[in-house]
Amino acid sequence: MVPQKVISTPDALLKLLDEYELDIFTSQSFAERAKLKLADWMPQLRTLIKYGLIDIIERGKYCRHNFRNEYVTGNFLAENGVIAYWTALNLHGLTEQFPNTIFVQTARQKKATTVFGVTYKFVKVKSVKMIGIERQGYGNNQFRITDKEKTIVDCFDLPEYSGGFDELVRAFVKTRLDAAKLITYCSAVDNISAIKRMGYLAELFKKEDTDHFIAYALAKVNERYSLFDAAGRNEGVHINKWKLRLNISEQSILSVANNLY
What we know:
Distance between the termini: 56 Å
Number of domains: 2
Radius of gyration: 23 Å
């Protein structure tokens, strides 16, 4: 389609959005796509907003009135944002608990916000940790999300965003994990305490095809003891091999896993 110099009517703007199959967009991305200046089409956009055909997500970000995909919106709210943590655990089928908040990983600081009744929590990490990303959905409903292994590693890194430590242990035990991916993601995240916890669990539950990861985790063990549950009390049996203090008994850990079956 040949770009117009000026979009003269709201219908013409809607037609152009149809041509580009855009349900969600930023003012910058649309202007670049249509090769238009903001002044060439913004008055018509304001008219569409006034009559409820286009909704404002936040400044400079818009969507069709009937577009309501909270995961795509989460990607749009944060530059290079990725659906992660508890939300990703649920989408990967690793927990049945559904979070009331959409968790978005990003390399930039951004305050929590609520859009169309949905609350978004943005978790800032170093850009080096922004790996292990895949896409789910189709067309305008496609969004970026951490893959299964990266989701597990992220949740052990920041378990306060995982929906509860018991749920995280269940997720780790219930799913088959790619050892090579675990090693790559653990190296990027670089949280020794989290690596020790995952290594201990992989060994305890004799997880299939994780021997290389267990060896990697053992090589990372330092001299400082870490609590198995970082949010729990400083008590329990010391596991010298992994330099972990089990403030949750091994029997209780096994019981958590048994609840899966």
